[in-house]
What does this fold into?
Amino acid sequence: MLGMTPKAAAAPKVAPSAPAAPGPQRRRRISRDDPPERRFPVIYRRLEKEYPGAKTALNFSTPYEMLFATIMSAQSTDATVNKVTAKLFTKYRTLEDYANADPQALEADIHQTGFFRMKTKAIQGSARRLLEVYDGKVPDTMAEILTLPGVARKTANVVLGNVYGVVEGIAVDTHVGRLARLLGLTKEKDPVKVEDDLMKLIPRSKWLNVTYLFIEHGRKVCKAPVPRCEECVLSDICPSSRV
Ligand code: SF4
It folds into this structure.
């Protein structure tokens, strides 16, 4: 019997070597030289962490009270407006009370907020238009609310956002405009143009909140005329930082 030659053991198959996996890629740090599109998400995240729950400081219990408080807040502080409205909203209980009030009495009641003659005209004019055209209700669209006397886009954005959750733009007050310029998000001075630049840069879901984050930061750290850059969480990504 012929001897059987044992088969040589088959060599184990070796899988062709895969190309080496790239090592973990380090993301480049955002710097103040980066364009606004890259810096803004970081700015937003940090401010959100600094000021959780940032929101309007104005007190109100009806849509028209918010409207009137916002009209009064121009060139004034929210604290002063709240002091004035604490008495005002008790004395004037309906839109008719504002519409029919003696203008001089209303001027005296809101005197502390400044520009009281202009504001009285805006409040009484708005109260009458709300009663005559809008059935006593503050409208919930930008086009309609802008037809009220003394109401421009900033007031409209504040009222629509805070009362109805309708967000059609970004309220640009003095803090928002200053921060947007210092942070290099716009070069514009006119609030409507600043708003336009911010709306192009910022996702709509953040339009309402960004106003209150910038206001908080503007009040507490990025103050005018001298910002406290040494305390600022944005100093490494802010082109205007002094540190
Ligand atoms: S670094 Fe200075 S200028 Fe820039 S946001 Fe902060 S406080 Fe304002």
Remarks:
- Residues 182-183, 221-222, 227-229, 232, 234-235, 238, 240-241 surround iron/sulfur cluster (CB under 6 Å).
- The chain has two domains: 36-48+170-237, 63-155.
- Confidence is low (pLDDT under 50) at residues 1-18.
- The domain at 63-155 is CATH 1.10.340.30 (Endonuclease III; domain 1).
